[in-house]
From TrEMBL, chain A:
SMART domains in the cross-refs: AAA
Native source species: Kribbella antiqua
Organism superkingdom: Bacteria
Protein family (similarity comment): Belongs to the ABC transporter superfamily.
Protein name stated in the entry: Teichoic acid transport system ATP-binding protein
UniProtKB/TrEMBL annotation, chain B:
Keyword Transmembrane included in the entry's annotation: yes
Record Pfam families: ABC2_membrane (PF01061)
TM spans (from-to): 65-86, 92-108, 146-163, 170-192, 267-287
Name listed for the protein in its UniProt record: Transport permease protein
UniProt-annotated location(s): Cell inner membrane; Cell membrane
Superkingdom to which the source organism belongs: Bacteria
Similarity comment: Belongs to the ABC-2 integral membrane protein family.
Ranges of biased composition (kind: Polar residues): 1-11
ABC transmembrane type-2 domain mapped to chain residues: 62-289
GO molecular function: ABC-type transporter activity
Transport among keywords: yes
Topology within the bilayer: Multi-pass membrane protein
Provenance organism: Kribbella antiqua
Assigned GO CC terms: plasma membrane
Amino acid sequence: MAVADTGAEPTVIADDVNIIYKVIAGQGGKGTAATAFRRILKRQDRPSIREVHAVKGVSFTAYKGDAIGVIGRNGSGKSTLLRAVAGLLPPASGAIYTGGRPSLLGVNAAMMNDLTGDRNVVLGCLAMGMSPAEIEQRYDEIVEFSGIGEFIDLPMSTYSSGMAARLKFAIASAKAHDILLVDEALATGDAEFRIRSEKKIHELREQAGTVFLVSHSLDVVLDTCNRAIWLDKGVLRLDGPVEEVVEAYNQSATGATTKV
Amino acid sequence: MSTAAEQTGTSDPAAMAERHGLSKSSLRPPLGSYTRELWSRRQFIVSYARARTYALYAGARLGSLWQILTPILNAAVYYLAFGVLLGTKNGIDNYVAFLLSGIFVFTYTQRSMTEGSRSLALNLSLIRTLHFPRATLPLAYVLNELTQMLVSMGLLLVIVGLTDGISPRWLLVIPALFLQTMFNVGVTLIFARVGTFVSDVSQLLPFVTRTWLYASGIFFSLPAKLTQADAPGWVIHVLSLNPISAYIDIVRRALLDEHVKNQLPHAWAISIAWSFIALVAGFVYFWRAEDRYGRG
C-alpha cells in the first residue's frame, strides 16, 4: 500500500499490521492434576490455548503534532494496537515504524504496589532514564500534577484506581515523549484531573509529539484529538478528522447498541 | 535526509520510514547500545533493589534485622543436622566455618536463580508500562542477593576471626565473590528468560537446586569422601568442574587454615572460566528475547 508523502514529518507508520496472540481461554476440563496427566499421555496440546486475531491489516501514518483518538467497541483491538505501537507486542505480519521510543500508559499497568507513591515516582523516573538530579528537580511538579497530596507517603496498594492512574500519568508525562500512548488512563480520574491531563496532552502535542488516546468517552476524544481511528473487530473502519469519525461511529453505534 | 525516493512523491511505507529515520517498534537494540543503555540505568537497578528489600521486610516486626538472622538460623539448622546429628564433621578442624562458607556461597547462587526466574513475570505490569532495558530487573534481584551475601560473609568472618584468628589470606574472598557474582548474573539472566516463557521452571527449580546442594560438597569434604569410597582418581576431576564446588572451594581456600588437604584441583581456573562463560552466554541469551518480554 502506498502512503501519500505530504511533507509533514511522520512519527508512526503502520504498514498492514496483523496481530495474533495466544490466550489461555477459560479452563478446558476440570483443571485437576488427573486431567492434566491424561492430556499429556494423549499428547494433546494445552486445551485452552486459543489464537486471537486481534488486529487485521491495519495501516496508517501519524505525523508530528497529531493527537489521534482510537475508538471502537470493547474487544475491537484498540489496546492491542497500542501495545504493538509501543513495541511490546510484535506484529505477526506487517510492520510498525516509530521515531523514538513510544511510551504506553495504561490503566491496568500497575507499578510497585507494596511501595509508597513517592518511591514509585523515583523508580518510574529512573526506569525512564532520568538522572537523580533531574528527578529531584521534577519531583514536586510530578506530585503536584498527580494531585495525590499527602497520600504520596502511603503504599500504592492503598490507592483507589483513579489515584493510581493519576500518579502513573503524572510520572509518564514527566518526561518529554516523542510518542505517548494513553490507554483509558484518563477515564478513572475525576473531572478536575481530566481537565488537567487534557491540558497536558495539548502541551505534549505542542512539543511536536504525537499522542494516541484510547477512550470510550467520545467527549474526551473530541476535546483532545484532531484525528481519530475507528477500529471494528480488528479492522480499520475509518481514519480521518475527529468530528467525522466520531459522527460516523455514533451513527453506527445507535444503529446497533446505544453507547454513550 | 533527501534521497532518491523523495522525488517519487508516494512510496512504500518501509522506504518512507527509513527516509524519516523511523525504526521498527519491536526491534531489539544492538548488543552494544543495549549494554550502554543498561549501564545508564544503574541507578534504577540500585533503587529497585533497595525498594525490594524494603518491601520485603516492611511487614516484619524485626525489619531488616532478618538479613542477619536468616543466615544465622540457616547455619544453626544445618550445623545441627549435619554436624551434630549425622556427624559429618570427621577430620575437618573448623567444621563450623567449613559448613557456613559452603552454605552461604551455595545460597547466594541458588537464591539468585530461583528468585531471578520470576523477576520478569512478577513485574510484567511494570514492563508493559515503561520502556527500560529488561535486564535491569534480574540484575536488581542479583544485587539483592549480593547484599545478603555480604552480610552473611561479614558474619562468617567474625566467626573465623574468633576461632582461627585474622589472616591476610582473607583478601582472596573479594575476587572469589566477584567471580561468583559474574556467574550468578549470567545464570540468573538465563533463568529469567526461561522462567518468563515457561513458568513451570519456577516449580522445577527448587528440586534442581536441592540436588545440586547435595552434590556440591557443602556438608562434607569431597576429596575425603571419595577416598573413603575408593572412587577412581578421575571422579574428583569431574566433580570439581561443578561451578558451585569451585566457588565454595576458593572461598574456603581464603578462609580456612587447613583447607589444603581438602581442596579441589584447579578451583581458581575453573571459577574464572565459569564466570566468563556464564556471564557472556547469559547476557547474550537474555538480550536475544529483549523485544518479547512484554508478551509474558
